[in-house]
Amino acid sequence: MSQPNAPAAQVGRVWLLGRLRRPSRAGVAKLALALGIFLVGGELLSRAYWMATKRTPLFSGQPGIESYYPQMRASGALTGAISNTDEPYDVLILGGSTISDDFGTIGPQLREGLEKQLGRPTRVYNLALYGHN
Prior knowledge:
- This protein is mainly α.
- The protein folds into two domains: 22-62, no CATH class; 69-126, no CATH class.
- 38% of the residues lie in helices and 8% in strands.
- The chain is built from four helices and two strands, in the order αααβαβ.
- The radius of gyration is 30 Å and the shape is elongated.
């Protein structure tokens, strides 16, 4: 609905906050550049944080699982073949102190029970640590 005294150029337009304006290409480019800098900077800062606190590599395709479970490599869990066709049945235990070897014997008991039930060798990697719930 037009007003009786409105200029012809304004008739039929919706006016929000005074006037309607299309963003310029320079404005869109500046916004895209600022967003890119923000995202790349955030990624670099988070990688630097994890490198400093958890001793993970700055640029690596591997997750920092060894920083959370430092006994992972020493236990042999990373060196074994990941396969369901090999002879031993592999069990990986992750969790808190209640199932760690420091406070009980769940690893050996589980290995013995599974060997008896399955009739095949079993390897148990108990990587449970206190505070890992």
